[in-house]
Amino acid sequence: MQSYFPKTLNSFSGFVRLAQILRTFTFCGELLRINGGARDSWIEPQECRSFYICRDAWLLTLPSVGFRQEYLDTLYRYAKFQYECGNYSGAAEYLYFFRVLVPSTDRNALNSLWGKLASEILMQNWEAAMEDLTRLRETIDNNSVSSPLQSLQQRTWLIHWSLFVFFNHPKGRDNIIELFLYQPQYLNAIQTMCPHILRYLTTAVITNKDVRKRRQVLKDLVKVIQQESYTYKDPITEFVECLYVNFDFDSAQKKLRECESVLVNDFFLVACLEDFIENARLFIFETFCRIHQCISIGMLADKLNMTPEEAERWIVNLIRNARLDAKIDSKLGHVVMGNNAISPYQQVIEKTKSLSFRSQLLAMNIEKKQAHSNRNEVSNARPARHPRASRAAPSQPATF
């Protein structure tokens, strides 16, 4: 493969040859992507790795063979042209080449990351899109050149674009909780610029499959919903507020009915309808059972918006799946709750298990502030320079 690579790129013919090589890389990469996952594929995994290693190693040697900056600009414009023509696979491949070749300080580096993410989303390559989302987030968080307002704007766009990935990736609902709820910079962006994102965060928490994690996360989510209740409300957030703040089961039941229509008409949440209704009913039931020791199945069915027969079958399934410590008295039509008091030792563990994470977060914030103050001291110690006109930041990442 090395014999096909041009030794110098100081001529137009060299650039044409480069374009041909990149097109070959794109075709081979697409061929590997199509055949690599097939059961009867004639392409071995080792051959795929060898191809990508050879490609990346050659790309990294380009700056030492007379590669010009205008070639990169042309490559970026060509990738954008492919994107506008609807060739998203070609655009993603060329933008990958562009990202490998340019430094992070290039004027088109950030826009190329947005374009790569958009291409993967449009092709529904959710694994690649998740990797691009993580890379873009790291670039935005580590960018010390942008002003706080520009960083806030970039994070706001990232929050909105990430919904495509989080609600289609298998681990997306866990990642959305970690990013939106436990990263202060992004939680601040949600509270400042886009409180309507709380709808999607709340849905992700309610439909989370990890029961222990869900209970702990709910406590933190309720605090955020209470703080932002004066700026944003919808049936989904109001359902949580009615159930865990006001303990108003009748209002929670009404809000649950409204949640169904909201989920059906929401592009991102329509696939979560069944999980949401199932878990919401479980939340109502668990909260109701903490207050009452003996519950009538008829009254419980009314609270859950179900018939008595459906409610009884639903409770039986919960008991069978070891999700509920209770017994059913069929003669009286009652559910008798078991005694599952939490030991003091377990209570201490629940209250202190987040201290390690919060301590690490506090240490990271202190280190960032110290590094920022050190940079300011160094910049103040340098002699003054003539001011230069600064390039205006794009109003949105869609400038790709």
TrEMBL record:
GO terms for cellular component: eukaryotic 43S preinitiation complex; eukaryotic 48S preinitiation complex; eukaryotic translation initiation factor 3 complex, eIF3e; nucleus. Residues 165-342 form the PCI domain. GO terms for molecular function: translation initiation factor activity. SMART domains: PINT. It holds the Pfam family PCI. The keyword Glycoprotein does not apply. Belongs to the eIF-3 subunit E family. This is Eukaryotic translation initiation factor 3 subunit E. It comes from Salarias fasciatus. The gene is eif3ea.
